[in-house]
Amino acid sequence: MKLSQFFLPTLKEVPSEAQVISHRLMLRAGMIHQTSSGIYAWLPLGFRVLKKIENIITREQDKIGAQKVILPTLQSADLWRKSGRYEGYGKEMLRIKDRHDRDLLYSPTAEEVVTDIFQSHIKSYKQLPQVLYQIHWKFRDEIRPRFGVMRGREFLMKDAYSFDLDFESSKKTYESMYEAYLRTFKAMGLTAIPVKADTGPIGGDLSHEFQVMAPTGESTIYYDAAFETMKDEDRTFANMSKLYSAADEMHNFETCPIQGDQLKSSRGIEIGHIFQFGTKYSEPLGAQVMGPDGKMVMVEMGSYGIGVGRLVAAIIEAHHDDAGIKWPTSVTPFDLGLLNLKQGDAAVDSLAMELYEVFNTMGLDVLYDDRDERAGTKFADMDLIGLPLQVIVGSKAISDGRFEVKNRSTGERFLLSKDELIKFVTDAYNTCC
Amino acid sequence: MKLSQFFLPTLKEVPSEAQVISHRLMLRAGMIHQTSSGIYAWLPLGFRVLKKIENIITREQDKIGAQKVILPTLQSADLWRKSGRYEGYGKEMLRIKDRHDRDLLYSPTAEEVVTDIFQSHIKSYKQLPQVLYQIHWKFRDEIRPRFGVMRGREFLMKDAYSFDLDFESSKKTYESMYEAYLRTFKAMGLTAIPVKADTGPIGGDLSHEFQVMAPTGESTIYYDAAFETMKDEDRTFANMSKLYSAADEMHNFETCPIQGDQLKSSRGIEIGHIFQFGTKYSEPLGAQVMGPDGKMVMVEMGSYGIGVGRLVAAIIEAHHDDAGIKWPTSVTPFDLGLLNLKQGDAAVDSLAMELYEVFNTMGLDVLYDDRDERAGTKFADMDLIGLPLQVIVGSKAISDGRFEVKNRSTGERFLLSKDELIKFVTDAYNTCC
């Protein structure tokens, strides 16, 4: 993609309304545009990151056998009356009347609808377990939307729903989702700490929040240092749920089982929440199947959310510096930035275009800054939008055939010949996730 | 994917509420589930087709330089008041009040929002042309939703918006979109005829509808036989817009410039609509840029829609028989179906599993019918859901090492050894789109 044609409205000034770093950087990098209070359009750069995150989530959900669907954003109030949540949900639920004066609502979550679909079609224990999920827009009419996409009103969420024959099987599904969440966040360059949580308005028996460690997080969490050092293959529910972790308001230094260096703390951002809630929805909505003994059984359910838009913000909170964003390679909107410092100089233009073609042919997504701008502007914009590698083509490339490459994350710079450069880039993208 | 674990609620009976074939087949094949009048959930099989179609559209939009974004479903009424459409749109527009009593609406289209985003950020002719598009849910409160997803209330649409400096450049953008549409529909196994159209509520100067030929279409179109025989490389705007085509109500046998065998007719389903409307939205919303001469110019715009969910129905209308759907390979939910006719027989099970692994390793999406069901049920379900190839593993596979393969579209059957089978499948998927 050539930057001269790309819709990338970067801002030099820090927008005054943005209080947290991710919000400021997302506005400055031209990733999002606010259209109403708490409602954002995702512009091309932001959309690309959102899509990368969706793909990672989809891969990990598919791996554990979850099946993707898409549920309506507008749902009938009647279903929600059955579960008792229509009245209980409060003003965060956006209630709507259609032209025939029927009550609809904009889905803030989808337990009711998916349970109703399940009960219409699944009648036998032989078809269990089932996990259905979607990545779709939700609406919660927050009284005071803030922090950009971190607490918006219209937001993208992954929500999964599980149906099992009995408690034991439901617990196994819960555990496999817990482990999938850890893999999902890790693949995005995030360390996530699962914290036992209250079940809140969703209700139920067992619940974990996943907190991403970021210095600018909203709350403090305390946790066992083993969370950080544990090997990937050991990150099972059995191992991890034994370790201590607690949110600020639950932590008590007196009674905490771990002490000293073993006890760590960090600011955290909640990016996922999982629930096992038994028959809370299957009972009122009549989701029962015939069991092996011929008797009807209410199915045991769970639900599992990830804030997809919020993840974009969380990744930025965890990966940035004063100059801008530093994307992990797995979620970067482009693999590398190519900067032409002498736009209009025929020799430099032709060399830069040649590299652009080479990188494209290698299957890389390249953002080529071919604008007629000062070098300083190009450097600043490229640092701001945070692509992992910057390849700089200037007069040095002509005079002694060398290109500067900058690693955005480490700040390291290399001066490479064309062959070395191609090898460097190849290695960087073969060895990464 | 093993069918025993797949959420595929096929129906034997024809649902009485469904009047058109695609609606009946989508319900019977377990692709969709109605949750309210004109509102559907897309179940796993349907979702897979939707995603394939999205990917083809995305590829062709990206090719012409359109940039993907995602715009909010809920939009502020104020923007729509500026363009004059808030009052004019009528009851099809779903009007909503949020908790602070502000007027919102559920986007039925997005000219206003995208024009406002454009004018906030693009200030110079140097940044033109720009084409932004999204694939996202819309809502139109149809008084009488019908024909399933063909005329639903909440529906998935590709909508693109173009911004050019002048009429000539805008016309070029329009033409490249017109050609992209032809490639898009062709890649899905559809012959689309562009028909000059009224501009209707979107307004403007130039407009084409794209009609898919299907015997069950809603309206009749008349067109030049050359549309069908023209080579792909000749399918340019310049060539095609010269040919005669007209909707029923516009066609007049007396004045029609073509006659006899050259004049063909077919039922048609509208699956796309493109508009060039000049400054209709840029003027009220103030979308102007500085031109090369330093003067401010209102940008020339167009918008370009494709009904994504409706395309699923249109493909089925064009590709089915009495037994069910016949998916074109480019949009099939799975590449092939593997039928085990002796589920529970250890030798057959192990052979079927071996093939399942082989096909998966080849990178194919396989639906393996491992259910404990009669052969008749398996054949009927597989014909109904319409995967292009069926590979049948039964006692013949054990007794003389031969597998039956059925081409769903042609009905041809082949009896092949394992090696021949693998070669056959490899060839089928290498030579296809």
Describe this structure in words.
The structure is a homodimer of 433-residue chains. By secondary structure, chain A is of the alpha+beta class. The mean pLDDT of chain A is 94. Chain A folds into two domains: 18-321, BirA Bifunctional Protein, domain 2 (2-Layer Sandwich); 334-430, Anticodon-binding domain (Rossmann fold, 3-Layer(aba) Sandwich). Chain A is globular, with a radius of gyration of 24 Å. In chain A, strand 17 (320-321) and strand 18 form a beta hairpin. In chain A, helix 2 runs antiparallel to helix 6. Chain A starts with 20 loop residues before the first helix and ends with a helix. In chain A, strands 3, 7, 8, 9, 10, 11, 12, 13 and 16 form a nine-stranded mixed beta sheet that branches. Chain A has a five-stranded mixed beta sheet with strand order 20-19-21-22-23, sandwiched between helices. In chain A, strands 4-6-5 form a three-stranded antiparallel beta sheet. The first copy, chain A, has 14 helices and 23 strands. Chain A has helices at residues 21-28, 44-63, 77-83, 85-88, 111-121, 167-187, 226-229, 237-240, 282-285, 308-318, 346-361, 375-385, 395-399, 418-430; strands at residues 32-36, 39-42, 67-68, 74-76, 94-97, 103-106, 130-139, 154-164, 192-196, 206-213, 219-224, 245-247, 263-278, 288-290, 296-298, 300-307, 320-321, 324-325, 336-340, 366-369, 389-393, 403-407, 413-416. Chain A is 32% helix and 28% strand. At the A-B interface, strand 1, strand 2, helix 2, strand 3 and strand 4 of A face strand 1, strand 2, helix 2, strand 3 and strand 4 of B.
